[in-house]
C-alpha cells in the first residue's frame, strides 16, 4: 500500500492542510536529541491526528531522555530508535481516523498519556496506566498498547496520533499553556481518587511542592479537604501552594513535620500524598498518618528505600502507589480547571519555542530562574525569563 493510499479512509479538511513530513525531536544516545523530519503519522481506527500546539516538560521526560526508563520502545530502552519523547501536550485535531465521529477537525484537545491495550484485565478495570501489555506494540508482540512519550512517539513534534479515549476538549477560555497542565492535575486527581476520593472535611497532607504536589494541593482543596497542609522546604513554592489553597505550610528544615502535623490534626492526618519520593519523606508520610489513614506514593524514588513497615502494619495504615493518571482522572481534572476551581497556570513559569527544546530541558532540569513548569510552544511563542506567553 502506498503512503497516499494509506490515507484514503482518513478524514481531512482543506481548512487544515497537511504536510507530507513534520519536524520532530528524536532521541539518540542518552541526553542526545536531534531535530529531524519524519513522515506524517497516519491515524487508524479510533484515532485522530493532533497538530501539537504546546507541550509541557515533566520530570519523567528528563529521566527518560537521560536514562531511558520508564520508557520502553520495541522491547527495550528508547535510545537510537528514531523515537520522539514528550507526553504532556495539547493541540488541534487535524485529521480523523476511520469511524471517528466523537471529535471534529479543528477541535482543541489536551491529551492523557496512556491508552493501554484495551484488552487486558487492568485496562478493562480502567487501570490502563497499569496495562499488563505495557510496551507490547511492535512486530509479532503487538498487543496494541499505546503510551505516547513512553512506548510510542510523543509530543516533542509537530504532530502526533492519539486514541480518542485519551483526548479531552479544551474550552476556548483556556490558554494552550494551561491546557498542557491538565495531565499534571490529572495525576494529582488520580492519587486522591485511589485514596478514596471522598476527602471533603478530611485532613490531607501533601509532601513536596513540585508541579504534582502543588496541583495536589489545588485538587484536594477543590474536593473540600480541610485542612490542606503542604510540607516543603522552598519558601517561594510554598507560597504558590498557599495561592492554590494550602491552609497550613510546614517547612521541615525549620520544624519537625511529623510532630507539627500531629499537633494540627490531633492524631495524625487522614490522607498523605508523598510527591517527593525519598526515604525521609516516605517515612514521614507513614508516621504523620492517623491510624486507619491512607498514604499515596505519587513520586518515583530513584533508589530502593527503607521504611517503617512495622509502624504501617500496627497502625493499620494503607499504602497506595500510583502510575500516571488512570481511571479517567485527567477528564475530571479538566472539569475542575474549566470551571475555574483553581488556577493551574500559576505553576507555569517559562515558555520556549520548539527549536529551543534543549534549552527548555536545561531550565527544567537545573531549575534555572526557579523554573517550575516549562512549556514548549509549537506556534512560535517563547520567552525564557518569567515566561508566561
Give an overview in words.
The chain is α/β, with parallel strands linked by helices and 389 residues long. The protein has 2 domains: 228 residues, Medium-chain alcohol dehydrogenases, catalytic domain (Quinone Oxidoreductase, Chain A, domain 1); 128 residues, NAD(P)-binding Rossmann-like Domain (Rossmann fold, 3-Layer(aba) Sandwich). The chain contains 11 helices and 17 strands. The strands form 4 sheets. Strands 3, 4, 5, 8, 9, 16 and 17 form a 7-stranded mixed sheet that branches. β11, α6 and β12 form a beta-alpha-beta unit. The C terminus is likely disordered.
Oligomer: single chain
Helix content range: 10-25%
**What value does the average pLDDT take?**
93
CATH top level assignment of the largest domain: Alpha Beta
Number of helical stretches of at least 4 residues: 11
CATH structural architecture of the largest domain = Alpha-Beta Complex
Short description:
The protein is α/β, with parallel strands linked by helices. The protein has two domains: about 5-185 and about 330-375, Quinone Oxidoreductase, Chain A, domain 1 (Alpha-Beta Complex), CATH 3.90.180; about 195-320, Rossmann fold (3-Layer(aba) Sandwich).
Amino acid at each position: 500500500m502506498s503512503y497516499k493510499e494509506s490515507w484514503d479512509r482518513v478524514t481531512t479538511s482543506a481548512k487544515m492542510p497537511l504536510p507530507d513530513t513534520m519536524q520532530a525531536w528524536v532521541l539518540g544516545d542518552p541526553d542526545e536529541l536531534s531535530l529531524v523530519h519524519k513522515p506524517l503519522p497516519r491515524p487508524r481506527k479510533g484515532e485522530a491526528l493532533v497538530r501539537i500546539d504546546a507541550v509541557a516538560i515533566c520530570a519523567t521526560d528528563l529521566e527518560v531522555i537521560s536514562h531511558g526508563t520508564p520508557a520502553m520502545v520495541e522491547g527495550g530502552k528508547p535510545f537510537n530508535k528514531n523515537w520522539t519523547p514528550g507526553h504532556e501536550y495539547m493541540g488541534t485535531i487535524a485529521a480523523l481516523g476511520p469511524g471517528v465521529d466523537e471529535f471534529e477537525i479543528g477541535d482543541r484537545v489536551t491529551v492523557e498519556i496512556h491508552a493501554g491495550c484495551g484488552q487486558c484485565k487492568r485496562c478493562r478495570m480502567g487501570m490502563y496506566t497499569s496495562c499488563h501489555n505495557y510496551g507490547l506494540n511492535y512486530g509479532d508482540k503487538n498487543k496494541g498498547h499505546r503510551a505516547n512519550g513512553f512506548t510510542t512517539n510523543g509530543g516533542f513534534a509537530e504532530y502526533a496520533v492519539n486514541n480518542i479515549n485519551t483526548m479531552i476538549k479544551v474550552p476556548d477560555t483556556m490558554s494552550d499553556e494551561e491546557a498542557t497542565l491538565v495531565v499534571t492535575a490529572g495525576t494529582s486527581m488520580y492519587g486522591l481518587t485511589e485514596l478514596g476520593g471522598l476527602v471533603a472535611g478530611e485532613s490531607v497532607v501533601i509532601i513536596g511542592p513540585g508541579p504534582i504536589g502543588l496541583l495536589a494541593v489545588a485538587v484536594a482543596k477543590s474536593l473540600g479537604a480541610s485542612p490542606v497542609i503542604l510540607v516543603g522546604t522552598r519558601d517561594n513554592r510554598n507560597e504558590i501552594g498557599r495561592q492554590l489553597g494550602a491552609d497550613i505550610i510546614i517547612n521541615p528544615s525549620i520544624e519537625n513535620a511529623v510532630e507539627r502535623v500531629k499537633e494540627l490534626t490531633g492524631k495524625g492526618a487522614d490522607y498523605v500524598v508523598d510527591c517527593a519520593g525519598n526515604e525521609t519523606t516516605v517515612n514521614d508520610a507513614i508516621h504523620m498518618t492517623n491510624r486507619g489513614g491512607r498514604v499515596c506514593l505519587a513520586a518515583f524514588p530513584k533508589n530502593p528505600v527503607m521504611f517503617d513497615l512495622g509502624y504501617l502494619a500496627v497502625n493499620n495504615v494503607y499504602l497506595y502507589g500510583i502510575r500516571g493518571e488512570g481511571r479517567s482522572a485527567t477528564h475530571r481534572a479538566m472539569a475542575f480547571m474549566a470551571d475555574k476551581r483553581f488556577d493551574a497556570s500559576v505553576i507555569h513559569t517559562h515558555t520556549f519555542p520548539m527549536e529551543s527544546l534543549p534549552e527548555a530541558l536545561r531550565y527544567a532540569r537545573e531549575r534555572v530562574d526557579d523554573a517550575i513548569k516549562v512549556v514548549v510552544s509549537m506556534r512560535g511563542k517563547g520567552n525564557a525569563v518569567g515566561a508566561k506567553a
